[in-house]
Design a protein that fits this description.
- The structure is a homopentamer of 361-residue chains.
- In chain A, strand 5 and strand 6 form a beta hairpin.
- With 361 residues, the first copy, chain A, is an alpha+beta fold.
Chain lengths: 361, 361, 361, 361, 361
């Protein structure tokens, strides 16, 4: 839980520092994860592919109006100056730039006519800390270029790069809109890996809830539930994003590609559906935990009751004949002791019989 | 519970393998349930019926543009190559093919103008494992043909085949849209058999909740609830599917057949209504279980309290006269012992009376 | 609870028998409640009223196109042949006929242009079994006729018959649409009687929850809740039905009568509102039951604790001086015994004082 | 709770008496609160005001078409004949008249072209019985007249009458639509007084939940919750009413007055918001009650456990040396008794220490 | 809790005083927080800035039609006369004025054609009392002027003033609509500071729930939850406000500025999202508290049960041999005592073993 609170409150602290600044002021909100921003460029059409790493962002400006398609990828959002330069050259609205460097964005899409701006989250289940880690990805989709901004290097886009390199027909023939689709598809496909991890965890916990319902396992389930809620919160707005995208009437979008967006939409719905199933399963596990614990408690109480109820009367009887009255005729009688034993055993047996009938044993 | 988790996570594992592939790459996601894909063809009009099993898929290509109606049924989705061949010949979009072989689809309908694509789930309650088993059915509805894809042989379509063979008027006179309707109607009608099974289970459990509220019965109810949720999740989107279908303006659809779709829609709503009723009943059963258990617990506690409260003071009194003080006048007195018994019985009776008045007995 | 499960599963069993039949196959789903179907006819205009019982359904055919209004009422749905004959003559769609004889319909309205089909439930609270009993009513509203189908004789329509016989102006002057409205109004008005019954039950239970919160009373509340849910499920879709009816643009409907439909709509909303109030009240009663029970439990536990806590130390003290050590100086001292009593009474009183301060007494 | 049940079931009993009557039959549903209906008239324009009490309703008919504005107020709904006379003369639809005399209406608005019909509830918190009491108010808003119907004399309209008498500009210059607005505004403003009462009650209970969480206080909270739900049910539909009113295109409504309706709408939303806050607060109080009670229970259990756990072993030890065996070497030893005391005190102290460490003390 | 109740009921008391007044009557509803209302004016265009404090409100009237932009800020709502004067001169509708001085408004926007009226809440987390404190801000946005009304001096607008003074390009070049946006942006940005505070509190509580789950900490969580609900209630309607603003077609609004409104909208959604996360976390903390407490309770019960179950039989055995029967052969036997010890230890050990196997130890 602490992890999520910390994540949230860290973000808020940074956000609140921004309070009072004028809109469009670029302030990097998020952790700096990289020493220096890195810029890579892929320029391609059906027949040709040019790929390079840039030292200076200015070298990418030539691609702005160069047909057919250039993909400029920038890793590292802390270099606010660099992003401002890009913004100025490519004519990006100051509010868009502000959103790019503020890593607390909800997934959304905004059509600025000159370009379409998309932002969403790349998610990774970090096994070492046992939490979902997110990285914000922004896409600027212009007529001949697509600029992607990430917080750090290492991403899920390598599969897309491979497909471009391999000269796969569709991606090399299509414009930046298809490239944007391919990137988002890669991000969403990656969510299935997180579902897989969560599924494994649930299977583990499930066994243990039954065999040893300790408070620790309950807390583990709580933590997992929280991660699932966090996951859902990141994925849910993507549906809306894709919905808006599909309905966007823009010269930047080819009508024939809309079916691909609808395909990612279906995947997103699948992810959300599975998340909902997981929530149901976890709710069921909690119920099971509670009823298992309460069941054990009942067992404990029954044992106490049985023991106490059997022995308290017996002890009373023994107490009676431990009294020191001068005149207690039974004490003198020779068969008192054996008769008493028979009495005690009789009480004992009839108690057992009573509990048996009550189904407590 | 484990069953559902396994079902879910198995699917995810397969899905996640697909992450990173380009869209339209055909990868079979699901269990291979059949050695070899099987192809059967029914070509018919009002007067004529031709029925055969095909060895090679190529033999079916002739039917593409042959009026009036051909129903091509393919069992087995693992033969990706075969499905790709069908796709190429019948002009099916690569995303559709991807959906056909990926058995994790939500029920949906998509109008590709040349054809309409429908996908939904055939469900069966498998008594041996006590769970609902699903099989994905995809329908491609073209102008003169209907192609159905299933995971394995054996289906609920035999009734439809019989009707075609018997020369039933409407189905023989109508086009592929009516055939598609008939198939989906068969699938939905089959859901009632599952409702019946669940209804039986509920009746069984109901008796036992009352007579012997063991943790086992609670877990059985939990499992049943989970199956019901799973069932609902499969059926719910069919409403939307049928809704979309009814509103589809397509030359592939005859206006006069829309009322039939509306009829299946009503059946689907009935299924969902009954599922909801079952959920309510099960929630009520859980409440009943909990209150029965807590009631028994209260009984146990009352017995403990009554026994302890009666005998603890009595034992104390006996303890008093078990003391060995030299000077205890009562010990010497002759009637002490009988008087003590009267005292003890007096305490006992007044305790009983007190509990009676408190309605604990 | 069993009652509802049985009702539901009986219906499902019958429904599932139908699985696989072609649509429009007439199979009676429901109990046969009547030996022989009964047909009655009322033909009237403002000045004239003709009323008779028919032996053969064919005698009613003449009324199809006879102005002004004929009301044909058929009791008994098991006579599938008869209903088929009616259907053929009056040009009723096979799906409508199927719905008429299948008593598991949700209330709905469908405009077939030639006629409007309405189906809903007549409900009765059967005091002998303590449950709500439903009977399906279907109305076929044509240009000059209205056919009503019921499961058995005896209905809430007698008030309407009386109004027709008495020559009440509006109903005799108006067409089948007003007659249909009058019938549905009668059905909905009848629901208030059920509300009344439920209200009485609630009042009874309410007193008992407080005075004697036994598990039986809880189960009675559970059963009542279930009946209320069942009731709500039958009434809820009628809102939609009336809504659709009001919006229906059909030559079969007179614009001026729509306000009457809106009036029944208001009544239906009132019924639903009262049902919701009842649900709230019942939920409150359950909470009250639970807190009353748990409160009693707390009382029990307090008594146990007080008794045990007071007497256990006292018994210990008595035990000490019951020991048989040779050298126990107190035993020899003359005032030991009275001093001990003072000690014991001191402990006792201070314990009481302690519990008093803790507000346990 | 009983109060609400009785209110509800009384209403239902009366409603159910109406079942089977033809629509438009006037039957007074509600309590008769007044011996004789009272009629008062205010006829005014900007310069002139005429105010009188009428003996016969016929005297009001002259005002029907007299400009500019006449407000006819009728107290007492049991005089069905009088209301029928009004209805006939002013051309009011029979369904409207039925609604006026049936006091179980939900707030609603209906535009009959000749007039607009509004119905809503005047509410009062009756301190003597501790419940909200409602009175139905119907308004008929015609071109030159406004007729208001109430169940009994005494209302929240006196403020409006004062404003008319004082010659306040707007109300004297405007038509019946503004008057209708003013009346409804008065009704809604009055709701704030009820909110105030409820707020006071909540404050009272809040203190007591903490200091003395008795079952009585819980039941008081339950009762208050029920009143709040009842209140909400009466206020909620007024939003819809005002919404419909604002959208009504009618020659009876002046466009410039719509902003006033929107103002009452805002007030209604404020009332509902506050009701929702109260519900949250009450839910929180119930949670607090439950956790306070369960906390006290835990305290009780701890005391029991500590006492029992400390003294049971001690008593056992004492019991050992109370045995009468011939050969028990300890009994003979001189220092046995003091050593035993040391042992007992040792057990006692270490137990205390153990509980301290466990934080039970 | 009390704080919120008091806040609410104080407001209601004042509101209810207004009941019965005619609409547009100006009555200050809220606390008077300032001795005297303060008026400040900023008149600016791209090149020029004039800033002054006014003694008399009349001095501001000259700015009404003076281009380009004048921002008149008024602190103190209790001076109803002053606000009436402003209203008369600037042509503000009496309902608007009523809303300005009544501090119980929900955030809303209303387009009066001559001006646009906006009202929302400035919120502050007051650490000394540990509650959120709200101040109502109203904006009147005319063609050349913007009037802002606040309850007291000291606000979040200083950042905006700085930006105007610094001659920041956009705000000096734009009209009152951009100024209104800037002010609302400042208000919403300030909400992040409250989120930060709440986040800190949650972190504090989180640690303590685990280490010492006292009733006090539970109540703290309850209080925090209530503050969060209050916060949410203030922020939620701002979404709607901004939504309406964006869709407003008014000559007072520049199309190009709508994107800025959409930006504040996104921030508001972020605030609400974080609030929802906090609610989830708090719900989780309460669950954790409850399960921690119940877990401790179980521990207590187990200790009791173990102690009682072990020693009660042992005490019984000791009691047996404390009896004073004349003829008890065991008493005479020499090895009785040691054998008995072996027996007792045997029972003890096997009990321990039993509990071990049951996992109670």
């Amino acid at each position: 839980m602490k992890h999520v609170i910390k994540k949230t409150s860290k973000f808020i602290k940074r956000s609140s520092k921004k309070a009072g600044m004028s809109p469009g002021t670029l302030v990097h909100v998020g952790e700096q994860r990289l020493d220096k921003a890195m810029i890579s460029v892929m320029n391609y059409d059906q027949d040709r592919l040019e790929e390079k790493e840039l030292k200076r962002i200015e070298d990418s400006f030539a691609y702005k109006d160069t047909p057919p398609v250039t993909w400029i990828n920038i890793d590292g959002l802390h270099d606010v100056e660099l992003i401002e330069t890009v913004g100025t050259h490519f004519g990006i609205h100051s509010l868009t730039l502000e959103d790019i460097v503020n890593t607390g964005q909800r997934p959304k899409l905004y059509d600025f006519e000159d370009y379409i701006y998309l932002v969403l989250k790349m998610l990774k289940y970090d096994d070492t800390i046992g939490h979902i880690v997110s990285e914000q990805v922004s896409l600027i989709m212009g007529p001949h270029y697509l600029i992607s901004f990430q917080e750090t290097e290492g991403d899920v886009f390598n599969f897309v790069r491979e497909r471009i390199r391999k000269g796969r027909v569709r991606i090399r023939k299509s414009g930046p809109d298809y490239l944007a689709y391919a990137l988002i598809d890669a991000v969403v496909d990656h969510y299935f890996l997180i579902l897989e991890k969560i599924g494994e965890k649930i299977e583990q916990f499930e066994d243990r809830v039954h065999s040893e319902p300790t408070p620790e396992i309950l807390q583990n389930i709580h933590t997992l539930k929280r991660e699932i809620i966090y996951f859902r919160k990141q994925v849910w707005p993507i549906r809306e994003l894709l919905n808006v995208w599909q309905k966007t009437e823009s010269p930047l979008m080819q009508e024939a590609h809309k079916i691909f967006i609808s395909d990612v939409y279906d995947h997103t719905v699948q992810v959300i559906d599975t998340i909902e199933s997981f929530r149901d399963i976890i709710a069921g596990m909690m119920d099971l935990y509670l009823s298992t614990v309460s069941n054990r408690m009942n067992e404990v109480m029954k044992v106490l009751t049985i023991m106490a109820t059997i022995f308290i009367p017996l002890t009373f009887v023994a107490g009676i004949y431990g009294m020191n009255f001068k005149f207690m005729p039974e004490l003198e009688w020779k068969w008192s002791y054996p008769v008493l034993w028979i009495l005690l055993i009789g009480i004992f047996v009839s108690m057992l019989f009573y509990f048996k009938r009550k189904k407590w044993l």
